[in-house]
Amino acid sequence: MRSCVASVVCVLVFSGHVSGQSGRTVDWPGVGNDPGCARYSDLDQINRANVTRLKPAWTYHTGELKGRAGKTIECTPLVVDGVMYVTTGYLRVVALDAATGKEIWQFDPLKDHPFQHGPMSGGVNRGCAYWYDGQPGGARRILHGTSDGRLFSLDAKTGKLDPKFADGGIRDLHAALEPKFASLGYGPTSAPAVWKDVVIVGFACGEGPGIAAPGDVRAFDVRTGKELWQFRTVPRPGDVGAETWEGDSWKDRGAANAWGGFSVDLERGLVFAGLGSAAFDFYGGDRHGDNLFANCTIALDARTGKRVWHFQTLRHDMWDHDLPVYPNLVTVTHDGKKIDAVAQVTKTGYVFLFDRETGKPLFEIEQRKVPASDVPGEQAATTQPIPVKPPPFAVQSFDESNVTDIGESNRASVLARLREVRGGPAFNPPSLRGTVVIPGYHGGANWSGASFDPTSGLLYVNSNNVPNIITLVESKKGDVPRFGPYGHSGYVQFLDHEGYPAMKPPWGVLTAINLNTGVFAWQVPLGEHPELTARGVPRTGTETFGGSIVTAGGLVFIAGTKDERLHAFDKQTGKLLWEHPLPAGGYATPSTYQVNGRQYVVIAAGGAGKLNTKAGDAFVAFALEGGDGDSAKP
Prior knowledge:
Blueprint: E1 40-41, E2 54-61, E3 78-80, E4 83-87, E5 93-97, E6 103-107, H1 109-112, E7 129-132, E8 140-146, E9 150-155, E10 170-172, H2 179-182, E11 186-187, E12 193-195, E13 198-201, E14 204-205, E15 217-221, E16 227-231, E17 263-265, E18 270-274, E19 296-301, E20 307-312, E21 328-334, E22 337-345, E23 351-355, E24 365-369, E25 383-387, E26 397-398, H3 408-418, E27 424-425, E28 435-437, E29 450-453, E30 458-464, E31 468-470, E32 472-474, E33 486-488, E34 492-493, E35 508-514, E36 519-525, H4 530-534, E37 548-551, E38 555-558, E39 565-570, E40 576-581, E41 591-595, E42 598-608, E43 613-624
């Protein structure tokens, strides 16, 4: 059994010859490659010594820019038996020949199967899942969850709907919701997970001051589409965690959702997720308490959906600091013993490391006092859990000491604005005056997540140092029927007068963290603003969306930057060894695979999105240019 994810991307392929493995085919069958989402490949044909020979091998264009607004592509391509499965900006599923990029089939859920509900989160999709029944010539399915609230089961060979699954191959995920929620925004944006014959689905839903759909985790029979179990992410009276909601504040409470996807321990039958904020995510005066299971890393029994353990990484969230991604399943060495563990990266800029079976922290976690709120009705948590190790990988405060230094006028414009709002440490509560949120709404880490090298114990995470300003505003009477009395003035990034982040660079970084020792191996800027480089400003890094992968060839591949490039770093030192321009920003996580003895690296180049660069519609595949790759091993 394997699970996969697909997406539409610009694909770059690199190839060469591996001695003794000339006909070897190696898959990337899930968004995280393995079900535990380490995002590691044992391929080494492309390596430190030859990575500079990488060139585009083929490009597939989705054709969706013609006559339509460009939409970002966040999908990680799946590759199984030489076939690549991707999802496009407009939610089509496309099967490609992974060696050539030639289209095999496509499925269009929006054109061929119109639906009454609009998509959540701008309609983004980060990939699909692959299921195989394990029998020779047996059933193979692509499971595609769409942000309008549907789950499709497609024949992996033909792209046709499976007539035995739900309603002719389509499960309407809105249908089981209470009527008051059924018309609200609700649907998957990240790939489903697969355990045996169970497909597990998480949802994006509203987090604003109005009523929001529930963020419950749901599981279905992969053959029939029948719902098997549901885990309530906001507990009800009698449930574990109900005491963390004062009074009846749990009622009709939306979000606390697994929008970032899942990792799976196949042998133990455990499903892991990082859960998001509870609605309303900037004001909790009507939800006093710690608010389980919002902002929790949680382990669920894949058979039943029952909670096995949880850990809340942020209490009573008021900063939109969801856990934005699945935790990575890793094996570490502590006190001379191998321990199967769970590594959760956070928007707040920390890594929490837990024993996989019990949830016990493997590094000490302190309860640190944090500032109180001065907003009427709000009751901020008095302490927050902070790991002693590893150190934070994102900046944890913002004041005059770390205001931008890229130019005198840039610094002056930021200082003028900073005097008008409340700066200071992380966990400073939102206010009516305006409060700097650090890390910002995009992290720290985001849905980009992390990759893990099992040979060294190093975790690689890209993160942002771009603050926001949150300003609460009093709601007008009748504006918020459920979750008043405050709204906010918008998702405002703290920028200088030229539009660069208010903080001293680097604004985007890539960090290698040793999970055996809890210390950084290295940290380097990720990306650059060429116009600033031309002005003599050292490489600043840029805000990033899209994650990393790591290989046995000694390389970390990552795009995600505003400079629209794919990069290869030395995984041991952090040295930038190679970078190549993409036709548009690669705001997705790449994958790597091998077909007929040739290794490729592929990335979606959809541009647009939150970084607001030009739109693209490509998958680009890279491979080694000419000659064999086995002459220079890492």
